Every structure is written in structure tokens, then in C-alpha cells.
Amino acid sequence: MSDNKSKRILVIGGVAAGTSAASKARRIDPDSDIKIIQEENVVSYGACGIPYVIEGLISNFEKLIERNEQIFKHKYDIDVITNTRAFKIDRSRKKVYTTNLQSLEETVFDYDSLIIATGARASIPNIKGANQRGIFLLRNYNDGMKINDSDIIEKAQSCIIAGAGLVGLEMVEAFKKRRRGLAGRNGSMDVTVVEMADHILPTLLDKTMAKIVQRELEANGVKTILGERVEEIVGKDRQVTGIKTDTKREIESDFIVLGTGVRPNSEIAKDAGIELGTLMVIVE
After folding, report:
1. 8-119+265-283: CATH architecture
2. Is residue 124's pLDDT more than 80?
3. Residue pair 231/127 in contact by the 8 Å Cβ criterion
4. Can you identify the CATH homologous superfamily of domain 122-262?
5. pTM attached to this predicted model
6. Packing angle of the helix pair 69-76, 17-28 (nearest 10 deg)
7. What is the separation of C-alpha 210 from the centre of its chain, rounded to a whole number of angstroms?
8. How far apart are CA 257 and CA 51, in angstroms?
9. Nearest C-alpha neighbor of 16 from the set 40, 41, 47
10. 3-state SS of the chain?
11. pLDDT tens for residues 28-53?
12. Where does CATH 3.50.50.60 sit in the chain?
């Protein structure tokens, strides 16, 4: 799929890492043919702003989009192929096999240099009842839109956040301050955070610092349950009604957000025989 340019550079993944790598490649090699394959329908957006849209501080998700496909093409001469999943790398033939997620059409891209910037995905724990309506994850743009546009959340008066890491606490604040829906009209949403570790932000803070954060949460009406794990998500007619923890505590809730960490999207690299490390942007 080359167009007579001197070098074909293919980037799998967009958002921050992939688009930055592609832009840097363009500055280094003005004559190269650069393409970005992006699984989402937007390529460059401010993921950190997602909770602020859900809260209502930012009015819509389009305001998080930094650069669209047209800007990349006209300003940087970089082709962006969205809604497309790369599922196989053939290193010996220097080809990447992809599927369009809308048409299901398969396309093969050739490359001279390949950059893998596939990031991470939400880690879904093995919890009984985790396949019901009213359970949400938050990792990317589309996840945020699903939460924001859900009729369940629009009517909800209570929620549970499973996990007191960065994503979990951002969602605690977003729902506590949410400025629309039933909670926005009738008062603050009832928010409970459940963390299996014995303190808030367990991978970032020690217990002393975490206690300060916990007191601030509780001062703002957030219930904190520490040292307990969500063992089961209970529901009625396949709709979430609450949880049970491993201490047999039962908590009612209109919906649940699983903020239980992330895992790398490294399968495509591993299957291609590429050595994995701690840095998820791999150039070969």
C-alpha cells in the first residue's frame, strides 16, 4: 500500500503515544509514508478530560478531541485509518493484517518500520454477576460516552465504584458532582467506593497520606469501604441492584463502575514474537 514515498512507517494505536510517534517520525523523515491504524473512531483526544464531561464540567465529548483525521492528513501528511483493529503482524513479510470494525473488511498494510502503541485496556476481575446491565468500565473515549449517555446513570441516585485507584477516584468525584440527571435535580448522588487494599490509592500513597485523602472523601459525603473485595454483583432481571463483598456485606446501588486497574494490549506483539518489556511503544 505504498505510494512511491521512500519509507513506509506504520503505527498501530493513536491517542497520545501513537500520534506523538507518528508526528515525530514526520519531523525526522519528511518524505516517508506514515499511517496510523486506530481501533477507536477518534484518533487524538484528551482522555484525562473524560471524567469532567461525565461530571458536567465540560459540556460534551467533542471538546476533548484535539486533532481529527483531516488535520493529520492536511497538516502532517499522515493517513489515519479509524475503526480498524490490527489483529496480526507478519514480521518476516513486514505486513499488518487488520479488520474494519464496521464493514468487517480485512486489509493488509505493508511497512518498513512498525510502531506498536496499543496502550492498555480495563482489567475485568472474575466477579460473579459481572455480565449484567448497569456495569461500566472506563478506559477510552467510547467507554466515557457509554457512561455519559446511559439512561441507567441518568436516573440513578446511587453508585458503587470498585477500586480506589486514580480512575476510581476520578469517577467518585465525577458522580458526586454530576450536574445532570435525577441526582442533579434532587441532590448529590450517593457514592460508595470499595477497595480491596487497606487504604486509598494503594499503589501511589502510603497509609498516612492515604488517610488524608480518605478524610476528604468522607467529608464530601463519599462512603469508603477498605479491605474488602467485591465478590458478587447482584441484580434483578439482569439489571444491577448492588454488590456483596467477601465479608458478606451487601450494598445496594443503581450501577457500578469497575475501576480495578488495567492490563497491557500486548497480545498482538507477543503473538508476533516481539520481546515485551515495560515500555509499550515498540519500534522494530
Report:
1. 3-Layer(bba) Sandwich (3.50)
2. no
3. yes
4. FAD/NAD(P)-binding domain (3.50.50.60)
5. 0.84
6. 10
7. 24
8. 12
9. 47
10. CCCCCCCEEEEECCCCHHHHHHHHHHHHCCCCEEEEECCCCCCEECHHHHHHHHHCCCCCHHHHEEECHHHHHHHHCEEEECCEEEEEEECCCCEEEEEECCCCCEEEEECCEEEECCCEEECCCCCECCCCECEECCCCHHHHHHHHHCHHHHHCCEEEEECCCHHHHHHHHHHHCCCCHHHHHHCCCEEEEEECCCCCCCCCCCHHHHHHHHHHHHHCCCEEEECCCEEEEEEECCEEEEEEECCCCEEECCEEEECCCEEECCHHHHHCCCCCCCCCCEEC
11. 999 999 999 999 999 999 988 999 99
12. 8-119+265-283, 122-262
- Catalytic positions: 48
Q: Report d(CA 193, CA 162) in Å as an integer.
A: 6
Cα 119 to Cα 13, 90, 184, 252, distances in angstroms: 8, 20, 34, 34
Please, what's the largest Cα pairwise distance for the chain? 65
C-alpha cell at 243: 454488590
**CA dist., res. 34 & res. 23, Å (int):** 9
- 211-216 long-range contacts, CB within 8 A, separation 24+: 213/169
Q: Write down the pLDDT at residue 7.
A: 94
Residues in the chain, overall count:
284
